Amino acid sequence: MTANKSISPFQIALIEPEIPPNTGNIARLCAATGTPLHLVGPLGFSIEDKHLKRAGLDYWDWVRLHRWESFAELKEAFPGARYWLLSKKAERPYTNVQFQKGDFLVFGKETFGLPEILLRDNPEFAIRIPMVNENVRSLNLSSSVAVVLYEALRQTGQLK
Question: Which residue ranges make up each domain of the chain?
Answer without folding.
Answer: 11-155
